[in-house]
Amino acid sequence: MPNSVWRDWLFLGFSMALPVPWIASRALLGLELTDGSIAVLGGLAILGGAFMISWSCELAERDIPQSLALLVLALVSVLPEYAVDLHFAWTAGKDPSYEPYAVANMTGANRLLIGLGWTTVVLIACWRSRSDELRLDGRQSMELRYLIWATIYSFTIPLKGTLNLLDAVVLLGLFSAYVVAATRSESHEIELAGPPAMIDARCDDLGRRAWGVGLFAFAAYAIFTSAEPFADSLVHIGRTMAVDEFLLVQWVAPLASEAPEFVVAILFALKLRGATGIGALLSSKVNQWTLLVGAIPIAYALSKGAPTGLPLDDRQTQELFLTSAQSLLAAVLLCDLRFQRREGFLLLVLFSAQLLVPHAGIRQAFTVVYLVVAVAVLVFGPTLQRRNFFALALGRPMTPPA
Fold first, then answer.
1. What is the pLDDT along the chain (402 residues), one digit of tens a residue?
2. What angle do CA 371, 373, 377 make, to 5 degrees?
3. Fewest CB atoms within 10 A around its CB: which of 59, 157, 184, 222?
């Protein structure tokens, strides 16, 4: 057996073994672990699950449209985020002290996705390809269209002072339309590498699909069972340091739950498939900005036992405006289907700067900065970006780059 095949088998076995200590200790034996042990074992389970999700998605691309494969990948990899956020929303219906946490977790996850996830992928992709830009696939205009629509609507939520069932109807409607569009996109041949290539070469269609489903199911179980305890353990550790609980919920818990999709996208970028990595994160952003945000008021209303919306205080309102402004700038920058290295640095610097100073005035200032830069790009930037942004916003076909 060639050395490369042995290496692929070892890599596959190692990744599948990573979640085993967590599953054995908590799910099977029910052991009471310390916060430190939960952080380590839960983190390993998430990491192993991320690798398996990446490979199962690549195997799935043999049989279904790439956009649908990325949609499924994004949905499974953000399951921990959904579990944590909906837990906060449900609990808030019973305990008003939890009301700020659902929005805190959601805004943190969305800003991490762009400020850290997108930027890491484009910087790695440019480094690996020795280029100054990452070219996106023209089919990713579908994700951009729904991201723009969801972002435009998101500015209305903080203006109302509540996240309510009307928002749920609009956002879940956008998500449903996105799913339909993804299922209608075209399939195309892809080049597999590593464990997926090994599986594909040694299995017939049924065997390949069985491997894909099995890896997906195992990864989803590992991530779903470990993410919330992992995030809670980090919160408990942080509380001993007297850190603001809102900040812990906003940044520590999402960082744990977002890790799988970050790892998946980075792996794509390292394998010179940066456009696929950005596509996965674009799909995750659309999922979170539609399905996740739309599900929060439903969970809250069901828990409350009344069709009432989740109230937003001043801090939550500021966080939502800031998150919407970041999303708008990111969408504008991608409208020419080119993600330049300098654009990645811009998003990373803006995200890092507002993260370091969590103050109301800083949040408002960076909201203005994001909006001013987005408008400046549309007015003074490349004609293609401006033309495509308005084409996508109006539901028209976009112009491909030369």
1. 565 677 888 888 998 999 999 999 987 777 888 888 888 898 888 888 878 887 887 787 777 666 666 566 666 666 677 777 888 888 888 888 888 888 988 999 899 999 999 999 999 999 999 999 999 988 888 999 999 999 999 999 999 999 999 999 999 999 989 988 877 766 555 566 678 878 878 888 788 889 988 998 898 888 888 877 887 777 777 777 767 777 877 887 777 677 767 877 888 888 888 888 898 899 889 989 999 899 999 999 999 999 999 999 999 999 999 999 999 999 999 999 999 999 999 999 999 998 877 787 889 999 999 999 999 999 998 888 999 999 999 988 888 776
2. 115
3. 184
Amino acid identity at 302: L
Q: Which residue carries 């042995």 as its tokens?
A: 6
What's the CATH number for 3-393? 1.20.1420.30
Host H or E run for residue 37: helix 35-60
Helix or strand run (H / E) with residue 339: strand 338-340
Look up the pTM and report it.
Answer: 0.84
Q: Where are the domains of the chain?
A: 3-393
Backbone angles phi and psi of 338, in degrees to 5:
-130, 130
> Residue 83 and residue 101: Cα distance in Å, rounded?
13
